[in-house]
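FORM 7B: Structural annotation worksheet

SECTION A. Query
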Amino acid sequence: MNSNPERYSGVYKELAELIGDAATLKIWKRFSGLNITFPQKLYSIDFRKEFIMENMELMRPSEMAKALGLSERRVRQIIAEIKCEKH
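SECTION B. Predicted structure
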């Protein structure tokens, strides 16, 4: 079956354009009929902390903030928490 996002309605059309027919059908089969909200935060607290620990000497807080979808202020807070835990 060739990909043709025009065959879908609403949000399914957007999904098909973004991820293709097969993935769109998987999402439809799994979640059809449900209202789903996607949270702003993609990464878990543990992952964010680990990422910051591994990169705080390599990247600026602004770069880490952008990569994680956090504010620079929050990244600086997490860095301070990490440094407190080390002492």
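SECTION C. Observations
The radius of gyration is 19 Å. The chain has a mean pLDDT of 93.

SECTION D. Sign-off
Analyst initials: ____
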